Amino acid sequence: LHKLIAQSTKANTRRGSTRRIVSGVNTSIAAVPWQVSLREKTYPICGGSVITSVWLLSAAHCLLRSKANELSVRLGSSWKTHGGEMYDVKETYVHPKYVRNSKVNDVGLIELYSPLRFSARVLPIGIVAKETRLPANQAAIVSGWGKLREGGPSATFLQSSTIKTIAMKLCRHSGLDRNPIDPTSMFCAGSFSQPSPDACQGDSGGPIVSEGVIIGVVSWGLGCARGNFPGVYTRLSNPVI
Q1: Which residues cross the membrane (predicted)?
Q2: Catalytic amino acids?
Q3: Any bridge partners for residue 36, and if so which?
Q4: Binning pLDDT at 50, 70 and 90, where does residue 29 land?
């Protein structure tokens, strides 16, 4: 992934401020212009991020569920079902070391047939550098059109929320300890002790951004916004990625 970015054409990378995100707020696509809606036969299934004019980033588990010729993406719109522009997917690539059961290295790439037309509403986001340390309690923004609450309806308008990263020691002692958490390829964000804003079903594959770069991909969790169950994200600073 990092090699791809280094070899790609010199895209104008925007450093922004920045599973409806639970407890999120309505957000203009202009605030997160790298946000992508991944669709299977026009039905929204996951999120993603623009990283170059022809390459998008998402979660591996999102890309394994469909053939590339069944996928398309919507960009440049705050609305899930209309506006912006639609692009067909040429091919998808799942990380070669992705482990389906544990979601280790849960990341993949989407290649488009046609280059994107960049604008104030469609721009690439830079990726965190390899081996960058991710401290606990670092503010980050997660965005998407996933469910507004666990078991509830999905958002029709783009949502975002500010959450904080959680120390791996705390994450491993949370309710998530029933599922293995790999500290090399994953990190946690949200709240350890109480319900907090969180990604939810439908936000998978979307970005979590901090200090102007994408630091992770929405991967998995237990429920949505539950106390003691923070969200788990693919760690993009992992050298393997």
Answers
A1: none
A2: 61, 106, 204
A3: 48, 75
A4: very high
